């Protein structure tokens, strides 16, 4: 029994993920464990996964960002318009969208650190601003006729592997690398746990937090571009859920300011977990509205479990 | 016969945490109506014992008897129901509520299902009369002194019919006259047959108030004596397991060239034109009353707070310090008085804490090198004798003295030359204090310039080469080692000039 507990503690979300995988493989007849279903499922989590990695940086630095879904919509629709309406080169349009996302969130970071506006308020405000901008730009109608190379990002494959999956994996590995091997990554988790102690140890707290926000913005923008590419059009409202689901992936993965070790992979697991639940409920033909209820319960349950485990650990040393 | 008189009796109680045996087969008993002091260094197991009694931890082995019955305390509520009250260092007081509300919180007297305010206030007044505490029970707690808040906690315990009250370092933040008042109340409780466990680091208080004393060391109960049968020296020997040669070890440092100089530093509020210099190998003490501006001065030197005026020189050259980052670059270190809030990442490992101010030293090119990180952290753990199961242990599980050593290790790792220590031994026990003093000596002997801010008169006289005294934001006196006396410093501390 103790062994089982140790394994769950060591692998956390990954162990739970494996259990869920086996459960679905057995209960769904032979619909779950097929290559087409699995690839489909993984494709669906890619957008959420990329945005969630951005959210991981922000959350590890001790803040959070409610506006990442709106940022995804802005960057997705914005880059779509640049290519469709202005005939801009796809690569350049995407680059501009990502840089703009990064710059806007860096500004949010400055508002949080310099003006001392709580992240909840600052990002809530930014969410409304961005939502408004998207609707102003698009007049609320989808942008159609995306160039083929734009659409390919969301629909193309390298052999059997979708481009989306490749992008997600690259992002996850880069993030894991930054957390483990770069001074910046180390400082993000230091600042997140105790900003005062970090400042007094010579860490530039403002720079670290602004940097985390900038990464969050860039990845939200990238996620939005991936989403629009998958939908083959710029949909102003398609990303409305993305921001909160991304945070859900971080929390379900088990990352917090005091527990930021292996954060990038934990977030990937969290995103997979949410995707697998949704996919499983679909296969089991559960009403789609139930999926939201289940996800809500899982988020609260995951945090409750984490708090319980932490307090247990504090009791046992 | 003995067990009849005991209100509390622990037999063979053990508790292990991974890698540490926090309590090892502890026997401990408290008689009805006695004041029983519990002494021991930090990490000796006192708090673990208290946490088992309060239900915060579960014991692994052993039995607890309370009032003649075998009991299992599973939660703080259980403890309260038994008649066991604990008054923690961090008081459990609601600042926004009145005194009476705090006493009856969670068990307010009720009439027809609603709170009977009149009865609550009259009950509270009666209670305070019995204990001879003078305090308006209708007053909000906010603004009351720590001592008065402590009285509320004691009254709460009495009103819950506590048969045993545990007080965890109740005097640590009290002034002398407040301590006296507390002792009067403790004596009154004892007369009423309430037993008291009194935990303290101040040995004098053990002799003043307790009937018996139990000493703990390394998770074991070393022994229990009648306080009248033991001397202070014997008590210290029991606590640290060896005879203390000297409280303040001898230093062989050579005072060299001037390293840091401040010229007319002020913040426009609490610090008014402070100038001083400190040399390599020198330990410069800062004495003064709380609020004299010593910490504020040091924070400006370190760049933690902005300064209005003043220049800072290192080796005679003016340096620019606008943030802690600048001071770290200029090899100035600041060990703050609140290590948990300002000095450590409690949830991170010892290793991560040691290297956090000197990440550039564990980098090869742009990448952090884990092997280097491990080597460095192991080296400091060994050099400084930090007691931890491994370099990967989270700092929160270390004792206070060891946590303080981790903070100092962090600054040694960043090659600091000027080291400012603000109340370096607060909340640290006798043995660990001695180690910190030895560490200060080693640093001075290695040619570093040391500044120590301390409110402990004995300490500042014992370790400094020279003492500056501050009063209301100004330096009112400088005392050289040959002239050290408590009298002169006390005089300067209240703004007096030398007569």
Describe this structure in words.
The complex is a heterodimer of chains A (317) and B (499). Chain A has 317 residues and is an all-alpha fold. In chain A, 78% of the residues lie in helices and 1% in strands. Chain A has one domain: Orthogonal Bundle (ABC transporter involved in vitamin B12 uptake, BtuC), CATH 1.10.3470. In chain A, strands 1-2 form a two-stranded antiparallel ribbon. In chain A, a hairpin with a 2-residue loop joins strand 1 (157-158) and strand 2. The longest helix of chain A is centred in the C-terminal third of the chain and has 29 residues, at 288-316. The two termini of chain A are 19 Å apart. With 499 residues, chain B is of the alpha/beta class. Chain B is 34% helix and 26% strand. Chain B has a six-stranded mixed sheet with strand order 6-9-10-3-11-12, sandwiched between helices. The longest helix of chain B has 16 residues, at 176-191. In chain B, 43% of the residues are buried. The model of chain B has no long low-confidence stretch (mean pLDDT 87).
């Amino acid at each position: 029994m103790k062994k089982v507990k140790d394994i769950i503690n060591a692998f956390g979300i990954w162990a739970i993920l494996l259990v869920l995988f086996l459960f679905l493989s057995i209960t769904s007849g032979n619909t779950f464990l097929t290559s087409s279903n699995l690839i489909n499922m993984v494709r669906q989590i890619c957008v959420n996964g990329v945005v969630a990695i951005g959210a991981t940086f922000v959350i590890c630095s001790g803040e959070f960002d409610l506006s990442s879904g709106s940022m995804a919509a802005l960057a997705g629709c914005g880059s779509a318009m640049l290519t469709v309406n202005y005939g801009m080169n796809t690569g350049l349009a995407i680059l501009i969208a990502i840089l703009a996302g990064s710059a806007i969130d860096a500004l949010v970071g400055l508002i949080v650190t310099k003006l001392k506006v709580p992240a909840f308020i600052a990002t809530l405000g930014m969410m409304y601003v961005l939502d408004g901008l998207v609707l102003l730009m698009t007049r609320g109608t989808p942008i159609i006729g995306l160039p083929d190379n734009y659409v390919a990002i969301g629909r193309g494959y390298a052999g059997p592997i979708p481009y989306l999956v490749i992008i997600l994996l690259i992002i996850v590995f880069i993030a894991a690398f930054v957390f483990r091997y770069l001074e910046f990554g180390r400082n993000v988790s230091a600042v997140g746990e105790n900003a005062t102690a970090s400042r007094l140890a010579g860490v530039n707290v403002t720079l670290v937090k602004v940097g985390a926000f900038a990464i969050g913005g860039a990845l939200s923008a990238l996620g939005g571009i991936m989403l629009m590419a998958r939908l083959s059009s710029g949909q102003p409202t398609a990303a409305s859920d993305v921001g909160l689901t991304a945070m859900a992936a971080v929390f379900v993965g088990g990352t917090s300011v005091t527990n930021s070790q292996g954060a990038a992979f934990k977030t990937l697991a969290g995103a997979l977990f949410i995707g697998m639940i949704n996919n499983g409920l679909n296969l089991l033909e559960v009403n789609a509205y139930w999926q939201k209820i289940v996800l809500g319960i899982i988020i609260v349950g995951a945090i409750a479990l984490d708090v319980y485990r932490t307090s247990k650990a504090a009791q046992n040393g | 016969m003995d067990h009849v008189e005991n209100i509390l009796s622990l037999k063979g109680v053990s508790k292990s945490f991974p890698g540490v045996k926090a309590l090892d087969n502890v026997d401990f008993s408290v008689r009805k109506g006695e004041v029983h002091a519990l002494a021991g260094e930090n990490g000796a197991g006192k708090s673990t014992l208290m946490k088992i009694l309060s239900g915060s931890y579960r014991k692994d082995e052993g039995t607890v008897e309370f009032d003649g019955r075998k009991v299992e305390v599973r939660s703080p509520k259980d403890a309260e129901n038994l008649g066991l009250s604990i008054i923690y260092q961090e008081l459990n007081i609601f600042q926004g509520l009145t005194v009476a509300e705090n006493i009856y919180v969670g068990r307010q007297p009720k009439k027809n299902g609603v709170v009977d305010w009149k009865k609550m206030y009259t009950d509270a007044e009666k209670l305070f009369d019995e204990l001879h505490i003078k305090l308006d029970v209708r007053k909000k707690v906010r603004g009351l002194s720590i001592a008065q808040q402590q009285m509320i906690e004691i009254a709460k315990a009495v009103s819950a019919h506590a048969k045993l009250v545990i007080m965890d370092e109740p005097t640590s933040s009290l002034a002398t006259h407040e301590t006296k008042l507390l002792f009067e109340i403790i004596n009154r409780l004892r007369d009423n047959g309430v037993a008291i466990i009194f935990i303290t680091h101040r040995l004098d208080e053990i002799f003043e108030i307790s009937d018996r004393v139990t000493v703990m060391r390394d998770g074991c109960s070393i022994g229990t004596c009648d306080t009248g049968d033991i001397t202070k020296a014997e008590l210290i020997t029991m606590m640290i397991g060896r005879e203390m040669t000297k409280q303040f070890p001898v230093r062989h440092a050579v005072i060299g060239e001037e390293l840091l100089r401040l010229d007319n530093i002020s913040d426009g509020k609490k610090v008014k034109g402070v100038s001083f210099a400190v040399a390599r190998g020198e330990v410069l003490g800062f004495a003064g009353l709380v609020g004299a501006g010593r910490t504020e001065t040091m924070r400006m030197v370190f760049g933690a707070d902005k300064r209005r005026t003043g220049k800072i020189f290192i080796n005679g050259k003016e340096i620019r310090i606008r943030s802690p980052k600048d001071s770290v670059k200029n090899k100035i270190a600041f060990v703050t008085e609140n290590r948990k809030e300002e000095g450590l990442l409690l949830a991170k490992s010892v290793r991560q804490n040691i290297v956090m101010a000197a990440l550039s030293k564990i980098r090869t090119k742009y990448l952090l090198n884990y092997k280097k990180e491990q080597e460095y952290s192991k080296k400091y753990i060994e050099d400084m004798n930090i007691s931890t199961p491994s370099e990967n242990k989270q700092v929160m599980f270390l004792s206070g003295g060891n946590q303080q050593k981790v903070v100092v290790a962090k600054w040694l790792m960043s090659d600091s030359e000027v080291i400012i220590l603000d109340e370096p031994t607060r909340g640290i026990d006798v043995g660990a204090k001695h180690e910190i003093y030895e560490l200060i000596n080693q640093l001075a002997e290695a040619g570093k310039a040391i500044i120590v801010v301390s409110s402990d008169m004995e300490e500042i006289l014992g370790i400094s080469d020279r003492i500056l005294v501050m009063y209301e934001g100004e330096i009112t006196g400088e005392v050289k080692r040959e002239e050290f006396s408590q009298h002169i410093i006390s005089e300067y501390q209240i703004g007096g000039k030398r007569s």
